[in-house]
Design a protein that fits this description.
17 helices
Amino acid sequence: MDQDPQKPTTEPENTNFARLHIWQVQAFRDLLVIAVIFGAIWAGYALRFVTTPLLLAFTLAYLVEPLVAWLCRVLKMSRPVAVTAILASAGLGVVLAGLLFIPTIVFQASEFVASARAGRFDQWINRFEEVLPSQYRSEIGRVRTWINDKSTLVPPAVTAAESTPPASNSKPADLVTTVAEPKVVQLDPAANLQDSSPTSITQALLSPTAQSALWKILDFSSMLFAAVLIPFYFWFFSVEFPTAVQFLGSLVPAARKEKIFHLAGEMDAAVAGFVRGRILIAGGMGVMFAGGWWINGVPYALTLGLLAGILSIVPYLGLVVIIPAIALLAANQLTIPEVDRMAWYWIVAGPPLVFTIVQSIEGYILTPVFAGRATNLGPVSIFVAVLAGASVAGLYGMLLAIPVAACAKILIRETIMPSMRNWAAGKSSDPLPLDRY
């Protein structure tokens, strides 16, 4: 009987580390990928003047992609025409909203500042200061100093001139004499030439007031420039959005394409559902806040309501506007006769009651209709993510916080938690088998 030939054995290949380059070591490659990711985030934050408009434009293009696809599919528009129509409609809406709301908001804000500087709220501040602990009264003093400081509104010379009373023994004849005999003032050309010398002009330009005004002009110009760049970037991002998605899909390895596409779809549904839904919900809540507080008698209800609506993009963050609403309502009641004032419990409970009603409408009606269950993001996780992003990277971090939190939650739920459950049930010896990924 013939003996079976022995199967050839393949010995493991010995790796000569002396001949390897450092970038051929897998551990170094992993560290390099992590360093590149953190470096890109740091570079984006360092260049936030450039990257923030890009990020906002890309986010807007991502949010309106379903609308662009609908216009192209139903109305048979090309993508450039559809995006241009959306931009034109948005611009018209902004102009109309500005004509309707901005004058009222500016008037209410100016009226509040003028009333505060005129001492309308002094009585309320005095009463509030009496009930405060002594260690906090210094802060009230600073607020009082800021409110009573009229130097930013009226020049000192004008104030002194207005406060100087006329002489009691002056006669109309003196005034006639003064007008009839004007004084001739001799102008010194040398003095004028000296005042307009390059040194004087340079000193004026280098004064703190001139520098402050220059920096404010530059800041406003930068904001205006960024606001113009966002629609410009948005047009190109939205027109080329399908091409970019197709290109990124071609880079996914074929062996893991199904798993990665599934995760990407889950993340897309969560992020898009949250952002699109919260924008609509916040707009509706802002209108309801303004109307409810106006009925409640809160001064500057439109400004406070729109502010609360903007803050409500983050669930329950509009709560911070309740305290100013109560304070303004109480201060306004102190300026009217006592017989016409509201009851104290209505002053204290009115604004919170409006907030509670609006929040209930948001939870039981608006969120199920506009957001549904697509987000899977709780209010606490959203609130913590936004605060963490703002503390780390300001506006740039706030823009990235919610997408990163949503994607991290889905990644943990779809990849890490199944392995942890198998390990807890005794089906796996490794709670985190990284070789599967």
